[in-house]
Amino acid sequence: MTDTNNTLLSVTDIHKSFGKLKALNGVDMEVEAGSITGLIGPNGSGKTTLFNVVTGFYKKDRGHGKILFQGTQIDGMDPSQIADEGIQRTFQISQATRKMTVMENLLLASKQQPGESIFNSFFRPRLLINTEQDQLRKAHEILETIQLEDLMDEFAGNLSGGQKKLLALGRMLMADPELMMLDEPTAGVNPTLTNDLLEIIQKLRQDTGKTYFLIEHSMKVISSLCDYVYVLDFGENLTAGTPEEVQSDEKVLEAYLTGQTS
Amino acid sequence: MGIVNYLAHIGIMIGIYGILSLTLNFQYGFTGLVNFGHVAFFALGAYGSTLLVMSGGTHFLVGLIGAFIIGGIFGLIISLPTGNLKEDYWAIATLAAAEIVRLFFVNEGWIYGGPYVAGPFGIRGIPSPWSNVIPTDVYIFFYLGLVAIFLLITYLFLNFLSNTPFGRVLKAIREGDDLPKALGKNVFSFKARSMGISGAFAGLAGGLFAHYVSFISPYNFQAIETFIVWAMVVVGGIGNNRGAIAGAAIVQLFYSSTRFLKDYVPIDSKTLASVRMIAIGLLIVLVMLFWQEGLIKEKKSEYKNKLKRVSHD
Asked: Please, which of B14, B118, B164, B291 could form a disulfide with B109 given CB 3.0 to 4.6 Å?
């Protein structure tokens, strides 16, 4: 990870404390454009906190560190601004709307939606209808990809845990960001669906060349998907490398064994 | 006053409260904003229109436009400091805001000059629009028609808006800020616009109310009014515009008809007034027990058929 021209996201010296608890203590990380980069570590090592800091849901501690995305400094921005810059994320606990259908979820995710302006709603109905139809077609294709086509009119809250994860992926594809950050995309998903999900991600990466940054506990997922893996422990970088390197690293084994069980 | 006139009166009250119920439903039913200070918009609209017409000497319609604008601006203002509050804190803040508005009108008598007017005395003699051209005996029906037109406009406007992509973002916000934020939606701005739009129409209801009853005082705008409107939304069906109107009708009919109970049951009218509130409370409990989603459920947006049409184009 030396070629800085190819770096999509760079995280430098990030600290985050909650009271006296130091959740992140000077974390550095780089995500290369077009890569699938993994982030692992025992429970409580700060993975999700890092995701929250990068996407603006948490503010990093002042005084040191910065986060660059495509050369733009994004720390300090609001989550919605960061999303507009081209980072989309999923949540560890699926955000599934109780009263919005699967299709509505996808339509919601589309960016540059002129119909979200009240003025356009009333005075430019043609524009509204045309974009809505385009979005509908695009959403339909995505639903086919993530195999939720039959459930398009089902409330998202009624989906199974695995289907919710697929829906989260679908929302991302709809928004079509540069960087997709997935927080435990396969947790709670049955093995068959996990395989499907992995296939989908791999295919998408080949087809679109998008960049993925994902938190995972399953080593199987990490080794079959990731090009490069970072390991966090107690809010600090423990090590980094290819999945093979990391898996054989004794420090990693030790962290997983001495820390809480995962 | 015959029975027909009385029915027309109830119709007018249903219309005015129907607008309030539609607007609260837009805030709570679609955007998830627990507004416990809805009566503030009603009060500001009523006073705004009254002062424009009586002190400013403007036409009734200008007064209504004023009520609309004042309600809208108040909606935007109230969402500025409170925009990032969580649901329950938002509720407390709006409750307080409504009390501030009411106490302002209790204490600031200068807004309308003269001895024993304004402040706690209220303002009387608010002119009825076009009362010089409409014969007195049919005036109430004319006003009923007027209120019905404004109710229809409010319904069409808010119903259309709740089905646009704008309304879709509101529905997402209703279920929490995190998802819309992660999808790049400026939640704060959407909440402010939702409050502004619905506040404007609620202000309009205030104007219609003032020119109908011709006397307003801070006493008309106590917190209990907010909760009556809440009862309407809950009974009618949260997140359904037709439900909001139906709820307004049911609660208003319930409220008005219990008035006649004093002829049949041996309770004095003072006690009966309290009993009426208990009855509305009971109505809410019954609805919560047997029709959790209210009388008319929220519509589900279905796309299967729309999609077929689109793909065959």
From this structure: B118
